[in-house]
From TrEMBL:
Name of the protein described by the UniProt record: Uncharacterized protein
Top-level taxon of the source organism: Eukaryota
Organism field: Blattamonas nauphoetae
Length: 278
C-alpha cells in the first residue's frame, strides 16, 4: 500500500514549504538613490507619480488592488519612496522581470532627458521615432531626477520588508547617523539596514490602516531621528562613482543571455537524434 508521504513529489514538498512560510518565490529587491534636479519647482507627489508610471503594476497597488501580495501568476510590487530636501531613495520589491523592466525604462528616460544629443543609443532612437508617430510617450516626470545610482540588489529575498508601496516626504534635514559614515560599503549597508528597519516601523505602526499610508508627520513621529534618512548621505551616494548607474546595472542583470551549443559539444549528435531508438 502506498502512503501519502510516498506519493509526494519534490515539487509538492517545495510548494508546501512555500505555503507554510507564506513566502513568495523569486521576489527581488533593489534600492536606488538620485538627486532632485530642481527642488524649487519639483513637488514630491510628481516624483511618486512618475514611478507609478514606470514601475510595472505599481499604479494598481496605489489604487488599493493589492497590498504587496501575489495574485495568480502576478507578483505586485511593494517598497517605499522617500523624498528628502535634495535627494530621493527608492526601495522596490517586485519580480525580477518587473525590476529589470523598471530599470531599463528608467535608464531610457534618463538618456532622453540628459544625453539624447550625445551618441544616442539605438533603443532611444527607436523610442523617439515611436514618440513622433504617437506610439510612445515619455511620461510626465521624465528628467526630474539625475545622478541615479544603484545601492543594493538581491534577486531572491525571503520575505517583504514592506507590506505595500508608499511614498513619503522627509522635508527636514537630519544630521547623518555617525554609524553610517565611512567608506562606501559601510554607507550603503548602513543605509540599506536603515530602510529595512523603517519598513518594520511602518508595519507595526498601530495607526496604519490596511489601505492608508502614514503622512510625513506621522512617519517622523514613529521613528527616531537616527532611523530616518539623511539627505546628505544620499546626496553623497548619488555622486559616488563606485556605485553602478542604471545602464551599468542593466548591462549586468537585465541583458538577455544567449546560450548556444555547437554540434560537436552536443551528445547525442544532432544528426543522429532522429535515428535513436525510442
Amino acid at each position: 500500500m502506498t502512503t501519502a508521504h510516498e506519493k509526494m513529489t519534490l515539487l509538492d514538498a517545495i510548494e508546501g514549504k512555500l505555503k507554510d512560510t507564506k513566502r513568495i518565490p523569486f521576489l527581488s529587491r533593489i534600492v536606488l538613490t538620485a538627486k532632485i534636479v530642481d527642488r524649487q519647482t519639483t513637488v514630491d507627489h510628481e516624483i511618486a507619480e512618475y514611478f507609478e508610471r514606470i514601475v510595472p503594476n505599481l499604479s494598481a497597488v496605489r489604487r488599493g488592488m493589492s497590498i504587496g501580495v501575489s495574485r495568480g501568476r502576478k507578483v505586485y510590487p511593494s517598497g517605499v519612496l522617500l523624498c528628502m530636501p535634495n535627494s530621493i531613495v527608492q526601495l522596490l520589491e517586485a519580480s525580477y522581470e518587473d525590476i529589470c523592466s523598471f530599470v531599463t525604462t528608467f535608464a531610457l528616460h534618463q538618456e532622453y532627458a540628459f544625453k539624447q544629443h550625445d551618441a544616442p543609443s539605438e533603443r532611444l532612437l527607436e523610442a523617439i521615432d515611436a514618440a513622433s508617430q504617437n506610439r510612445y510617450i515619455f511620461p510626465r516626470g521624465t528628467g526630474l531626477l539625475s545622478n541615479v545610482r544603484i545601492l543594493f540588489f538581491t534577486d531572491d529575498i525571503p520575505e517583504r520588508a514592506f507590506l505595500t508601496w508608499t511614498a513619503h516626504s522627509i522635508p527636514k534635514h537630519f544630521a547623518p547617523n555617525p554609524e553610517l559614515l565611512g567608506f562606501t560599503e559601510k554607507q550603503v549597508l548602513g543605509a540599506y539596514n536603515q530602510l529595512l528597519a523603517l519598513g518594520q516601523l511602518i508595519k507595526t505602526d498601530s495607526l496604519l490602516a490596511p489601505d492608508t499610508q502614514p503622512t510625513a508627520e506621522s512617519l517622523i513621529t514613529i521613528a527616531e531621528e537616527s532611523a530616518l534618512p539623511s539627505n546628505e548621505i544620499y546626496l553623497n551616494l548619488s555622486s559616488n562613482p563606485d556605485l553602478p548607474t542604471l545602464d551599468e546595472w542593466a548591462d549586468i542583470y537585465a541583458c538577455v543571455i544567449d546560450v548556444s551549443m555547437d554540434d560537436e559539444f552536443t551528445w547525442p549528435a544532432l544528426s543522429t537524434l532522429n535515428t535513436l531508438p525510442i
